[in-house]
Amino acid sequence: MPVPNQKPTELDLPDQIRAGWRPIGWMPRGGQARPIKIRRNSDGLMGVLKKLDDPSDGQALERFQREIRAFREIRHPGIADIVLDGVEDGLPFYITPLGDTLAEHWKATRGATPSPSELVERSQALVLKIADALGRC
Q1: Taking a C-beta distance cutoff of 8 angstroms, is the pair 21, 39 a contact?
Q2: pLDDT, tens only, 77-124
Q3: Can you tell me the distance from the alpha carbon of 103 to that of 108, in angstroms, rounded to the nearest whole number?
């Protein structure tokens, strides 16, 4: 669980990604998780790790799993692809790239670029809206 004004450590990362990624900082809380900005060691790719906080909340677990399925199924220039997902100690997680795709798309269509935390939140909200509209999740 994050401590105010403290940078995340390797212990905040799932075991299966610790060797390949390093934590950079906490991002604003989003829904049922507190995202962590991370960097892949092999190529420097910046990403966002999102893992469910409480697996005992069945509705939150179902929403989180639906979010993962939606990210996997929908292809759109404003929606990030999942780099990796998994489950550790009953807590599902996923990683998406933290890139310019959504920012560039929004700048071209809306004339402004949202902050990185807005990118994550709006990307996730867009995924769920599209998935619900398509009836896939």
Answers
A1: yes
A2: 667 788 899 998 888 999 988 865 556 666 666 777 777 777 777 777
A3: 9
pLDDT band at 5 (very low <50, low <70, confident <90, very high): low
Residues contacting residue 80 through CB under 8 Å, at least 6 positions apart? 71, 96, 97, 98, 99, 101, 102, 123
The answer to whether the beta carbons of residues 113 and 106 sit under 8 Å apart is yes
∠ CA 44-50-51, rounded to 5°: 130
3-state secondary structure of 81: coil
Question: Model-level pTM?
Answer: 0.69
Does residue 9 sit in helix, strand or coil? Answer: coil
DSSP run (H or E) holding 38: strand 36-40
